[in-house]
Design goal:
alpha/beta, eight-stranded mixed sheet, eight-stranded parallel sheet, binds 2H-imidazol-4-ylacetic acid, binds zinc ion, cytoplasm, metal-binding, Metal-dep_hydrolase_composite, EC 3.5.2.7, histidine metabolism
Length: 410
């Protein structure tokens, strides 16, 4: 006897399960089945498709004629961090840009100070608030980066908090070491980068990926190459914060280093975008960051997809350059500013996001984890269209209903 059936599904969104990420034209393919059901046993999908009387279950969850999809996948966050940087808003109002704030010892370095001071429990409690909100917004797979410790003790502290989050919540996580995130005050780039590179052996027990911030005033392409090569030698798949602000050629470096993802890419070169199609690298675009930094130029998602590249989306949730944990909002910005289609957007926050962090998530094939969201929306186009609110109505993790949006007590 099966456990649970999700009934009364108006439309069931079924991203395609493939060995690699969806690329180019494939990104606009999205299987949607009307008048559907999902059957679950032991937290796994038994069947997801057109209604049939073939299955019996002990319980049902009523989708109430709403739409249903796999739970969303969040492939790029800095969820573990201390403090906040709302005070920087006044600097931004005065036109002080992100890299100048960092150069003046603010920005990332401000968060480093607050993260180093914060205890393990303070970091865990703070990140738990955001993890709860992400789950309530339909996300059940989350990547989490270090990079606010900038020394052995605090980088390990961040990674251990990230692991504790995964134990505490019914989410699948991927953990990324981002030791080379900024250069501590008074330190020299090369010697600090060597210190972070020397940590790679130890962080291997806590981290799935190694990441670096390749940017003017942070780490150069050559320094990044050296670090990525060292990380790969130690068995890490690598990621890179690339071409976020200045066009340093980070995307080309990512592809050269067989990075699992290249993230940001607002200033990616035409050459890099062309190479994306034949690479194993997923472009993780972060349009919320572009919006938050007040920039007008967004990453060229259209150019990347139309040239056969694989694109995914993420919030980049962090206290200084994208302070939102609402991935649905990013879906809307992707529609409005990246000119992505609804089908591309849904694939970008499910299967392609899962491939960007090597997670078997984002689909509802038999045997897949029964991570499912019932959305209070008439169709799949509605969510990128109606922005700034939470459309998640019921969230089901491994077959268990863990969130149901409350109504009003009138
Ligand atoms: O500013 C931050 O805290 C996060 C960030 N790292 C690289 N770009 C943004
Ligand atoms: Zn980031």
């Amino acid at each position: 006897m099966n456990d649970v059936m999700i009934t009364n599904i108006k439309s069931l969104i079924l991203p395609k399960k493939t060995d690699g990420p969806l690329k180019g034209k494939e990104m606009d393919e999205l299987n949607i089945v009307d008048d559907a059901i999902v059957v679950i046993k032991d937290g796994k999908i038994v069947y997801a498709g057109a209604k049939t009387d073939e299955y019996e279950t002990k319980e049902t969850i009523d989708a109430e004629g709403k739409i249903v999809s796999p739970a969303l996948v969040e492939p790029h966050t800095h969820i573990v961090h201390g403090g906040s940087r709302e005070h920087e808003m006044s600097l931004k109002r005065q036109g002080v840009d992100y890299l100048t704030i960092l150069e003046q010892g603010g920005g990332i370095l401000n968060t480093v100070e607050q993260t180093q001071k914060a205890s393990f429990d303070e970091l865990l409690n703070k990140a738990s608030v955001n993890m709860t909100r992400m789950i309530q917004h339909g996300v059940l797979t989350v990547e989490s980066k270090s990079g606010y410790g900038l020394d052995r003790e605090n980088e390990l502290k961040q990674l251990k908090v990230s692991k504790a989050l995964e134990d505490k919540f019914p989410v699948l996580m991927r953990h990324t070491f981002l030791g080379p995130h900024a250069i501590p005050k008074g330190r020299e780039a090369e010697e600090f980068l060597q210190e972070m590179t020397d940590l790679l052996d130890e962080v291997k027990d806590y981290a799935d990926f190694a990441d670096i911030f390749t940017e003017t005033g942070v780490f150069s392409v050559d320094q990044s190459r050296k670090y990525m090569e060292a990380a790969r030698e130690k068995g890490f798949r690598v990621k890179i914060h690339a071409d976020e602000i200045d066009p340093l050629g980070g995307l080309e470096l990512a592809i050269e280093q067989d990075a699992i993802s290249a993230d940001h890419l607002v200033a990616a070169s035409e050459e890099g975008k062309k190479q994306l199609a034949d690479s194993n690298t997923v472009a993780v675009l972060l349009p919320g960051t572009t919006f938050y930094l007040g920039k007008n130029e967004f990453a060229d998602a259209r150019g990347m997809i139309d040239q056969g590249g694989a694109v995914s989306l993420a919030t980049d949730y962090n206290p200084g350059s994208c302070v939102t944990d609402n991935l649905q909002m990013i879906m809307a910005i992707a529609a409005l500013k990246l000119k992505m289609t609804p089908n591309e957007i849904w694939n970008a926050v499910t299967v392609n996001a899962a491939h960007a962090i090597d997670a078997d998530r984002g689909t509802l094939e038999p045997g897949d984890a029964a991570n499912i969201v019932v959305w209070d929306a008439p169709n799949h186009e509605y969510i990128p269209y109606h922005y700034g609110v939470n459309h998640a109505y019921k969230v089901i993790a491994d077959g268990k209903l863990i969130f149901e949006r409350p109504g009003l007590n009138l």
